[in-house]
Amino acid sequence: MLLVERHQRLSADFKIILKALVNLYRAPANLDYVYDIEDGLRDSKAAELSLNWLKTQPEIAQLIQERYIAPNPDIEKLLQYSETSLGYAYASYIKKNGFDPGFYRQIKVENDISYLTLRMRQTHDIWHVVTGFNTDGLGEIGLKAFEMAQTRRTLAFALVGVSLLGILVKSPEQLPDLLEQITLGYQMGSKSKPLLAQKWEEHWDKSLSEWRTELGIQLASLN
C-alpha cells in the first residue's frame, strides 16, 4: 500500500514539475514556476542523493542538525553598518533592486530536505552578493551552476537545463554567453568553500572582501 501511495505521489509531482517547466520556459521571470519545480522535486531520489552528499560535509551536516534559521533581516539597520560590510552590501543590493528579503515562498520544515529548501530560499540573495553574479538571466544561471557544484540540488540542474533549451530555441546567438556563465559558475562553486554552511546573519559586520577571501571566491573570473 505504501509503495502504491509513493508511486501515486511521485506521478502527481512529475505532472506538477512538467507543467511548471513548460510554464517557466514560456515565462522565465515567474518565480512561482521555479518554486513549483522545487517543491515537486523534494521527494525525488535525486533530492535524497543530494542531501546525503551534503551531509558528508561536517559543517553542513551540523547546520542541518541544528535547523539553523535566522529571522528576516532589518534592511534599514543593516544600512547603518560599515560600507565595507556584508550587511551593508546585502541591504544596498536589496534596496537597489526593490526586493523584499522575505519574498520567497514559505515552506514548513518537516525533514532535512524541507529545511534545506527553506534555508536556500532564505539565503539566495546573500549568495548573489557574495559571488558577484548579477540578477539578470545570465547571472541567475551562473549562480545556479555555482549551486550545482556546491549542493547538487535538483532545482539547480533543472533551471540550467531549461535555460539552455530556452536559449537554443529563442536566442541561439546568446548560447556562448550562457555557456560561459555556466562554466564560470560551476568552476567557482567547485573551488569555493561551502556557502550553505555559513551563518551569514551572525556576522553581518564582517567585510564582504573578508568573506570572499575566507570562502575562496575569485571575483576576477567574472570580468
Low-confidence stretches: none
Order of SSEs: HHHHHHHHHHH
Q: What is the number of strand segments?
A: 0
Discrete helix count: 11
Please give the domain count. Answer: 1
Through-space gap between termini:
56 Å
Mean pLDDT over the residues: 89
Tell me the major beta sheet: none
- Content-based structural category: mainly alpha
- How many whole angstroms does the radius of gyration measure? 18 Å
What is the 3D form?
Answer: globular
The helicity comes to 55-70%
The fraction of residues in strands falls at: under 5%
Structure description:
The model has no long low-confidence stretch (mean pLDDT 89). The chain has one domain (2-222). The chain has 223 residues and is mainly α. Helix 6 (86-97) crosses helix 7. It is built from 11 helices and no strands. The longest helix has 25 residues, at 2-26. It is globular. 66% of the residues lie in helices and 0% in strands.
Question: How would you summarize this macromolecular structure in one to three sentences?
Answer:
With 223 residues, this protein is mostly helical.
Secondary structure blueprint with pairings:
Elements: H1 2-26, H2 31-41, H3 45-54, H4 58-66, H5 75-78, H6 86-97, H7 112-131, H8 137-151, H9 154-170, H10 175-191, H11 208-215
Helix pairs in contact: 1-2, 2-9, 6-7, 8-9, 8-10, 9-10
